[in-house]
Recover the amino acids of this structure.
């Protein structure tokens, strides 16, 4: 198993996982945001690989991807960012999140080699399920890069049997049926689903989709190993034009999330 | 016959046509799509399902559509005998309804309560709205803002039929983005919603399911041409966006090697410009909308905007079975520009009294080019897959004619 991810989950504290799109609003600001995330309490960084057609994302992340693509952000630039980040931070796991087409274009082997070289620890590929990922999965396993699997409210037992044996790092439980940044889950329903999932697996379970406020994050963190927040952070970039203000506001927001989940 | 040479053995059980196809969707949709596959497999050989499909095909759509000998065009081009398969005479004016009928019957059997669809030219949207009215199901159609503008008659038709048309203003504001929005709707409303995809693309089983429902076109052609000419045709030709009308015509004959097949992509301003919609001639393999197939994309794998005068061909991808048939060289893929299609549009209207849609005008444009070089004893069947009523505003604008709206 990937060391950085394993070490994070050795301690009992609840984990905060934060998502930002690589290169939004620009590469330098994005790198600064990324460097600050762990300082203000983020345990794991999910770095979005922008794609022109993000089918599982709501308007906030769609627009964020568009901004990054306008800045010509591609996989090489993302690997550059990761390398820069790793110069001063050897412990915070970086997980690349996105869609399969840019990776397929880059070449599976070259992609995994570059990930390993740049200090990437895990992958979330939204549109690549265990039945269709054999080559990439084998390559990533050899380099200790974890395939983080998404489990959703529609995932049934048959599918869990396919997914769990190939799941690494932690499970990303999608709290709602829907896209990012929209509705929030009903707390009781969510609690019940997590309880059932815990019977099936020992892998840490983190919850994402629709978690917008420190209060929500705090409530959910009580019965999971970690929470994932994305759109609400990205929205700060969308709403502000001053880079200084963006960085300051994200720092404060992440800090408040971190405090809320470990209260 | 080895599996590789039997073109009718595809897809495999994972939905692959060679290396193309598959099922590249978010986990939320996986269980649902597996249900669609399971139910479709159960129904497709079911006698009462086929009987029901045939009943509506005959009495509601008006099938079989005629196979018409285009005498004046044949004479004018001084080449092979040209037949039109007249799927533009179907109820709602295009081949799209064949597939919608099949899928809505499946949705009913699966007890789905709500139908969604994407549309480009609006022909698929109109066909979905129509079958939803027929079977009393609420219908939501996603349509790019750009397409809503250039296909206003079809937008009005859909509304009359009781559908809600949702404007999509993300990305290129056309068919690809409408499909993204439909997928986002589906992922949100998984429990009660059925997604009627309009072309031979999307996650497995859609590409083969849509092909199967459209293959009625080729089956009819076989009977009709044997009756008219006592032999099978030499060349089949059709336009291609996603590729459902082309596969509908070709599929029946794929293993008959003697029959040449030509599919005509939309070259927009020209294949060498950045403004076209020819995924095979100008793209490369990638993953979008649930399948691996040829796509128009940038070096780093971002999907490009397509361009075509015809909204129905304005899509940066193509069905995965076409990518497979392209790489195996079973079908010849060529292209025609906006201008060539417009000329064919006018030509057909004047010579045959048939106003074709801009989509099959592309197929006709290519046929006009090659026909004079072909032998007179050859027989060509072209799929006239849609009528041009919906396109008169676009065409009038291109010809600088003002129509009172």
């Amino acid at each position: 198993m990937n060391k950085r991810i394993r070490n994070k989950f050795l301690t009992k504290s609840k984990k905060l996982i934060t998502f930002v799109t690589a290169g939004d609003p620009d590469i330098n600001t994005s790198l600064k945001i990324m460097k600050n995330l762990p300082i203000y309490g983020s345990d794991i960084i999910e770095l979005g690989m922008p794609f022109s057609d993000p089918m599982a994302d709501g308007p906030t992340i769609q627009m964020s991807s568009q901004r990054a693509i306008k800045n010509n952000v591609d996989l090489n630039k993302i690997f550059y960012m990761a390398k820069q980040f790793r110069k001063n931070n050897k412990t915070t796991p970086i997980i690349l999140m996105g869609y399969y087409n840019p990776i397929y274009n880059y070449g599976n082997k070259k992609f995994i080699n570059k990930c390993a070289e740049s200090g990437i620890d895990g992958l979330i590929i939204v549109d690549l399920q265990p039945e269709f990922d054999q080559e990439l999965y084998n390559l990533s396993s050899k380099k200790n890069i974890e395939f983080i699997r998404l489990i959703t409210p529609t995932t049934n037992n048959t599918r869990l049997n396919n997914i769990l044996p190939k799941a690494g790092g932690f499970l990303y439980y999608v709290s709602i049926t829907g896209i990012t940044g929209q509705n929030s889950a009903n707390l009781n329903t969510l609690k019940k689903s997590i309880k059932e999932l815990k019977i099936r697996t020992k892998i840490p379970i983190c919850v994402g989709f629709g978690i917008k406020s420190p209060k929500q994050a705090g409530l959910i963190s009580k019965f999971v190993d970690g929470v994932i927040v994305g759109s609400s952070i990205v929205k700060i970039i969308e709403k502000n034009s001053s880079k200084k203000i963006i960085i300051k506001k994200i720092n404060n927001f992440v800090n408040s999330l971190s405090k809320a989940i470990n209260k | 016959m080895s599996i590789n040479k039997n073109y009718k053995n595809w897809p495999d059980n994972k939905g692959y046509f060679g290396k193309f196809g598959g099922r590249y969707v978010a986990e939320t949709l996986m269980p649902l799509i597996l249900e669609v596959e399971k139910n479709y497999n159960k129904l497709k050989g079911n006698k009462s399902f086929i009987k029901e499909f045939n009943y509506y095909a005959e009495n509601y759509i008006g099938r079989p559509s005629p196979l018409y000998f285009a005498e004046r065009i044949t004479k004018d081009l001084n080449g092979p005998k040209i037949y039109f398969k007249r799927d533009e005479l179907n109820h709602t004016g295009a081949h799209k309804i064949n597939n919608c009928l099949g899928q809505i019957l499946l949705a009913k059997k699966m007890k789905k309560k709500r139908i969604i669809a994407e549309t480009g030219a609006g022909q698929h949207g109109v066909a979905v709205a129509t079958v939803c009215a027929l079977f009393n199901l609420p219908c939501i159609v996603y349509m790019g803002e750009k397409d809503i503008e250039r296909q206003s008659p079809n937008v009005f038709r859909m509304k009359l039929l009781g559908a809600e048309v949702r404007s999509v203003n993300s990305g290129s504001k056309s068919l690809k983005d409408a499909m993204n929005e439909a997928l986002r709707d589906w992922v949100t409303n998984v429990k009660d919603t059925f997604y009627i995809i309009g072309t031979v693309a999307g996650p497995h089983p859609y590409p083969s399911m849509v092909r199967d429902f459209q293959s009625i076109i080729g089956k009819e052609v076989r009977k009709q041409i044997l009756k008219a000419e006592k032999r099978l045709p030499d060349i089949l030709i059709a336009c291609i966006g996603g590729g459902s009308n082309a596969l509908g015509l070709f599929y029946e004959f794929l293993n008959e090697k003697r029959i040449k097949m030509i599919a005509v992509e939309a070259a927009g301003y020209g294949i060498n410009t950045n403004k076209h919609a020819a995924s095979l001639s100008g793209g490369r393999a990638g993953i979008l909308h649930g399948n691996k197939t040829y796509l128009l994309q940038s070096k780093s794998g971002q999907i490009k905007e397509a361009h075509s005068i015809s909204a129905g061909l304005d899509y940066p991808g193509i069905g995965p079975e076409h990518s497979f048939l392209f790489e195996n060289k079973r079908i010849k893929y060529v292209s025609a520009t906006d201008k060539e299609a417009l000329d064919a549009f006018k030509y057909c209207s004047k010579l045959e009294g048939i106003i074709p849609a801009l989509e099959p005008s592309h197929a006709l444009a290519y046929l006009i080019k090659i026909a004079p070089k072909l032998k007179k004893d050859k027989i060509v069947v072209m799929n006239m897959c849609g009528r041009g009523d919906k396109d008169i505003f676009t065409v009038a604008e291109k010809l600088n004619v003002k129509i009172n709206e």
The first strand of chain B starts at residue 16 and ends at 17. Residues 62-93+215-398 of chain B form a domain with the Rossmann fold fold (CATH 3.40.50.1100). The longest helix of chain B spans residues 30-44. Chain B has a mean pLDDT of 95.
